[in-house]
Amino acid sequence: MNQPNGLTRCLSCTSCDPGHGLFEQKKCTLTSDTVCDILSGYFCKTLEATGCSLAEKHSSCKPGQRIKEHEYHKGNRCCRMCLPGNRVKRDCTEYRSTSCRPCLEGTYMNQPTGLKQCFPCSDCDEGSGLKMKSSCTTTSDTVCEPLEGFYCVDPSDNGCGAAQKHRSCEPGQYISQKGTASTDSVCSDCSDGSFSDGSFPSCRPHTQCETKNLQLLKRGTTSTDAECGEHSLNKTIIWRSVSVSVVLILSGISFVIWKKNGLPKIPGKNSMLTTNKYISFDLLRCFN
Fold it and tell me: Does this model's pTM top 0.70?
């Protein structure tokens, strides 16, 4: 009995009949009646101060019918979806519409939804070859793109999920097609008479030593250029020419000194001509 009275009998506790779409939310006590609530898939037809006393099952969509757009099915109820950037706080009932709340920081919802949790924002991991193109909002996920020198191997409508480093060409190959954010590099082999260290956009022809009046020291390969050097005959001719020039200059200096001071007396020698002869001979021997 929940109030003062003159009755000789107490009131009977209400029974929450599952057959009528009800379940017991709160038990009956000496001072209060049972409180009934509706089962999932039902709506209340008779609402009283102590709760619902009669419920009825929601209608089901017939074959060829569908739930109205931007509504979701909860049991047999059609509930209004929450807008992008939000999530469901409480599902709808017969007497109230869906209750929504905003997505938490670090989460997003990019479409109308009947979910109670938003999606977690994606992380652009540098270890996966990615960088952030645009940050996450409550209505859109993070957009990732490949790092410089990488290309996407897991493309999606909303960016890239994983990237891989561009291929490096080997010595003897050239980059025939430079890698992009969506494609890998393409390498091709150099032909005979050309070379590349692997970083060239095209193979380079070997240096032609004879066109530079040089001697071929080492032939070129597909990965290295030819090596050139001075001809050995040219070196000998230049060296001997310098030697003769030095001898002539010294002989000229000696002659000038002799003319100015007269013939010096050298033990065992009789003339400046003899002295010059020995000097010239010794110099030639040194330079040769």
Answer: no
Together in a domain, 53 and 86 = no
- Count the neighbouring beta carbons within 10 Å of the beta carbon of residue 171: 14
Q: Say if residue 166 is exposed, middle or buried (CB neighbours under 10 Å; 0-12, 13-18, 19+).
A: buried
Q: Cβ(133)–Cβ(118) under 8 Å? A: no
Residue 148: inside a domain: no
Question: In this structure, is residue 288 part of a structural domain?
Answer: no
Give exposure, 247-267, as e/b (b: 16+ Cβ within 10 Å): beeeeeebeeebeeeeeeeee
| Same domain flag for 49 and 87 | no
In the chain, alpha helices (H) = 232-261, 272-287
Most confident of 16-20, 23-27, 256-260, 270-274: 16-20
**Partners of 160 in beta bridges:** 155
Q: Of 99, 120, 141, at which residue does a domain stop?
A: 120
Contacts of residue 248, defined as CB under 8 A and 6 or more positions apart, other chains included, come to none
Q: Domain total for the chain?
A: 3
Least confident of 52-61, 190-199, 255-264: 255-264
Tell me, what CATH number does 214's domain have? 2.10.50.10
